[in-house]
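LAB NOTEBOOK - FOLDING QUEUE
OPERATOR: T.R.
BATCH SIZE: 2
PURPOSE: Compare the predicted C-alpha cell outputs for two unrelated chains run back to back under identical settings.
PRIORITY: normal
REVIEWER: second-year student, initials M.K.

ITEM 1
FIELD SEQUENCE / FIELD STRUCTURE:
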Amino acid sequence: MRAARAAPGAHAWWFSSSEAIGHLADLVAVPRGAPAPDWAGACAIATHPRIAERARAAGFGHVAACLPTREALVACIESLPSELPAGAPRTEPPLPSPPRDP
C-alpha cells in the first residue's frame, strides 16, 4: 500500500464493488497533516455504473467500465491509454449488454 499511496497513478485499479473503493480509502489513510493520495492521475476500472460513479466521486481521474468477465477486463485494460495526463477526462464508456443464451 505504500507504493499505492506514493504513486496511485502508476496503477490501474479494478473495482467489482463500490465498498472496495471505501476500503481502499481506509487502507491508504494518511496521518493528520500528511498529503492524501492524489487519485486524479489514477485509472479505475469498474464492473458496474454505480461503482464507476463512486470511483469518480473518490477522485479517480480516468474511469473505465467493463463487464465482470475475464475477456471484458482484458479488453478494457488493453484499451487504456499508456499514460493518463493529470486531469484526464472522467469517462465511463457504456457497459455492453451481456451475451444472451441461444
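ITEM 2
FIELD SEQUENCE / FIELD STRUCTURE:
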Amino acid sequence: MPIINSTKVNTYLCKDKKTFMTNNDILKKLRVALQLKDTDIVHIMSLVDFKVSKSEINALYRNEDHPKYVECKDQFLRNFLNGLVIHKRGPMPAKGAPKKQ
C-alpha cells in the first residue's frame, strides 16, 4: 500500500482507492481480527517495554469527533507490531545461540 503523507498523519490507501486508513483504523482492525482485549494490548506493549494504560488505549478507539480522541502515532503502532511478533512467536534468540532442530 502506498503511503500518502498528509499534514496530520500518515494514511494508507485502501483497495477501493477512494478511502484512507489511519494508524487508528489499522490498530482497530488488528484488535478485532486477533480478538484482543485491552488487557491483552497492555501486555503486548509491556513486552517491548512500552508502558500504556487501558484508558490510553480506549482513547485510540474513539471516534475522531469525540473530544477525548487520541491520534495513534507511528511509534505506538510500531511498538505494538513489534510486541505482537514477540507475543505470537516468542522472543528472538540471542546471536550465537545454537539453533533448535
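REVIEWER COMMENT (ITEM 2): The first strand starts at residue 3 and ends at 5.
FOLLOW-UP: none requested
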